[in-house]
Design a protein that fits this description.
Helix content: 25-40%
Number of helices: 6
Strand content: 25-35%
Largest sheet: 8 strands, mixed
Number of strands: 10
Radius of gyration: 19 Å
Shape: elongated
Order of helices and strands: HEHEHEEEEHEHEEEH
Amino acid sequence: QVESAKADLDESRTAPVGRVSIGLPPTVGRVLSGPLVATFRERFPRADISIVEGLTVHILEWLALGRVDVGVVYNPSSSPAVELRPLVEQPLCLISPAPEKRGPAGTVELKRLPEYALIIPSRPHTIRMLVESRLAALGLKPKIALEVDGVRAILDLVQRGHGHAVLARHALIDAGDGAKLVARPIVKPALRSVMAMATSAQRPLTRMAQEAIALLGELGPPLLKG
């Protein structure tokens, strides 16, 4: 609190100063960290930014502990301890090994998802919970081939023919340029992952946290909608 008060006094005299810590999911961090840090340093040369990567469940814990000031989280449940601001919705795709003869990728209907053996994170990962709940509403269950919590490991296993994955299209960045994978949007109805900016409702936002939220809202949608 003392450091925050000092920073506020400095801000009243000159450009914003202070430090902000942002929690990002790994797949988001791959896309957003570079532009976020570059723009932050350009606009706030006297301030410091740190980025911590983790799953949504970990980011929410870090918010409660004060380890991060702002977090980007997937499909968060409402809680009196957390304030949420919408960031972007991402359509989820079925990621599969690319066929030998490339053609139009097409789409996959949600009701057909149980036909595919899935390599999917364990509970309580938000994508796992989303897939199970949406299929349960249709009276269906996913076919789980493997439980793997790392996106890069999931994509490697898909490429090796061990199953399919349900991820946002931009997750293919983790697979590298030479990856032989295809992403087909899940439709009828579309399966969408909601991304939000989360802050603690128990602590007031610092000036730098407010600036970070504005910056995430500016940079996030065009980079993450894909």
